[in-house]
Amino acid sequence: MNALAATxxxxxxxxxxxxxxxxxxxxxxxxxxxxxxxxxxxxxDGSLVSFVGFRxxxxxxxxxxxxGIRYHPEVDPxxxxxxxxxxxxxxxxxxxxxxxxxxxxxxxxxxxxxxELERLTRVFTQKIHDLIGVNTDVPAPDMGTNAQTMAWxxxxxxxxHGYSPxxxxxxxxxxxxxxxxEAATGRGVVFATEALLAEYGKSIKDMTFAIQGFGNVGxxxxxxxxxxxxxxxxxxxxxxxxxxxxxxxxxxxxxxxxKTGKLANFSGGDALDPNELLxxxxxxxxxxxxxxxxxxxxxxxxxxxxxxxxxxHPTDPEADEILSKKGVIILPDIYAxxxxxxxxxxxxxxxxxxxxxxxxxxxxxxxxxxxxxxxxIKNLCQTHNCNLRMGAxxxxxxxxxxxxxxxxxxx
Length: 411
Fold this sequence. Notes:
seven-stranded mixed sheet, 17% strand, 45% helix, Aminoacid_DH-like_N_sf, 12 strands, 13 helices, NAD_bind_Glu_DH
């Protein structure tokens, strides 16, 4: 099942639990605006090449729309639509004053030079600059984009609208980016994990972890888990996978990957088939890579007792059912990976105020938001007698529906 179908299915289930009126249900499901643009740029050799860019603005009942821009060959309207909708529920679950959006360009970043990526980013910004804005739609980095990409968007947007640092988040610190932003999603995953384990009388130091994906989110999660005494027994990324039942030396692995660019040949662990990572023996599984990795083919073989969804939509609905029957506790993506957008919100606030916070304040505020959101989700799970995914979806939907009705849009 693709990401859009799965997201719509979760949405409808939550709408039924809440008893939402069919008119409001339909209005919440339909995106506010879908944008598709052609981006033609000259390559370094002088030849012209065209890419298709998308921006889906899903909902703005609770505030400006917010969401990442990804550069990836598989970017398509369905995926962008699903991720924009997930951002609407995620910002509502985190209780930050945003709606949801998502964007992307169908390209392979590693096949483009830095100057080609800059030209592509600037052309994309030229095509959508009048549809985004500090109080309208605030982009951020996602897969295949980074702080430099945001710097180019900020610069290009500012040519039309004057210097506007709050137009994007995830910027370089020198251009008004926030301290703590780089680690935010991974740190939020760890705060979410601590909140969940506390419900079961456990802590990170008591548990073993397997982490799929060792990019920004996975590596920060691994580092912070290791610092808290947790034992990371397996990790994987696109370069390979490794395991060590006694726990991997995460600082050593980070240094090795920094030096070699890959996980392979690290002396502190044995090679592992990357496909085995998801079914590896562990207490807590953290998928931090692509969506749909847990499906009906492998769900039966998952050995973890807890799954923390650091990736967007890593668990197919069929896998959800299988895992639930097995008693696996799943912490859903719309809550578990909300640390990134929460610190993006802090960055936006700092830019608007023109006043920067120190990193300790940011991390403390993030912990407060993640912990409070978890308890709000748990309360709804008890109210509606549902699992954590439906607890999160009902929390998000209810907040957006209330804002929509209060603004009088049901007419």
